[in-house]
Amino acid sequence: MESQEKISINNFAGVEELEMDIKLINILIGPQDVGKSVVVKMVNLV
Questions:
Q1: What are the domain boundaries of the chain?
Q2: Going by C-beta distance under 8 Å and a sequence separation of 6 or more, which residues neighbour residue 22?
Q3: pLDDT of 5-43, one tens digit each?
Q4: pTM of this prediction?
Q5: Less Cβ crowding at N or C end of the chain, within 10 Å?
Q6: Burial 6-40 (b: 16+ CB within 10 A, else e)
Q7: Max CA separation in the chain (angstroms)
Q8: Cα→Cα distances 17→3, 20, 27, 37, Å
Q9: What is the 3-state secondary structure (H, E, C) of the chain?
């Protein structure tokens, strides 16, 4: 069975607004300074 949750980030550490599904394995791809590390930090806090 696949585990899935949703995360929402609003006005935190440079991320204006983000809502995404979090699964057991996630891959974040993008240029520098777009908030990938912020998403990882928030998921670790949950």
A1: 4-45
A2: 4, 5, 6, 7, 43
A3: 888 888 888 788 888 888 888 888 889 988 888 888 877
A4: 0.58
A5: N
A6: eeebeeeeeeeeeeeeeeeeeeeeeeeeebeeebe
A7: 34
A8: 24, 10, 19, 15
A9: CCCEEEEEEEEECCEEEEEEEEECCCCCCCCCCCCHHHHHHHHHHC
